[in-house]
Amino acid sequence: DIRLRPIVQPLEVLTGDEEFLRVSVVICALGTTIKKAGSREEFQRIDHDLPEMVFRMCRAAGAHHAMLVSSMGVSPTSTVFYAKVKAALEASVVALGFPQVTIVRPSLLLGDRKEFRLGERLGAFFMRSLSAIVPRRYRAVESNRVAAYLAAKVNAADQGIHIAENEALLGTPL
């Protein structure tokens, strides 16, 4: 039985005692761009610190399954700041000791956005136009496929750490 209850509240004011943090599964798809965040420090806060805090609070409240939308190409030794921050969040979530962790690493995410991002629009156009020759690892993926993949894994009994790279997400039925 999957029940979703959206909570709209600034994450900075959470204490850890909130009843809505007592969940079985916690899913995080929070993320921004360095440009939109305005600085590396703010990007770090949004893409690492706040999600890590929520995962920590939910784990302390009894959550057993952490699900994270990360990114293709994450690496703690990357020269790309974005990839290093995403890798650090993955490591933080794993270190929290959830019995089950599901991490998805999509390439460029396609879908409706409230804001206009020229780089993403151009990337999406070229990815769609050239999808026949772009290796599956790098192909853009619809955000609803990522959501469908996570939804299919919510009640999976597989303990341990499971990482789904972009190729697995592309094959997810809608």
Q: Round the mean pLDDT to the nearest integer and report it.
A: 88
* Main beta-sheet strand count, sense and barrel state: 4 strands, parallel
What's the overall geometry?
globular
Radius of gyration, in Å, reads: 16 Å
Question: Helix tally?
Answer: 6
List the helices and strands and how they pair.
Layout (H helix, E strand, L loop, with lengths): L24 E4 L5 H4 L2 H21 L4 E5 L11 H15 L4 E6 L3 E2 L7 H12 L11 E2 H11 L6 E6 H5 L4
Parallel strand pairs: 1-2, 2-3, 3-6, 4-5
Helix pairs in contact: 2-3
Care to describe what's here?
- By secondary structure, this protein is of the alpha/beta class.
- Helix content is 39%, strand content 14%.
- The protein contains 6 helices and 6 strands, in the order E-H-H-E-H-E-E-H-E-H-E-H.
- The strands form 2 sheets. It has a 4-stranded parallel beta sheet with strand order 1-2-3-6, sandwiched between helices.
- Helix 2 (40-60) packs parallel to helix 3 (81-95).
- It is globular, with a radius of gyration of 16 Å.
Descriptors:
alpha/beta, 174 residues, 6 helices, four-stranded parallel beta sheet
Could you give a short description of this structure?
With 174 residues, this protein is α/β, with parallel strands linked by helices. Helix content is 39%, strand content 14%.
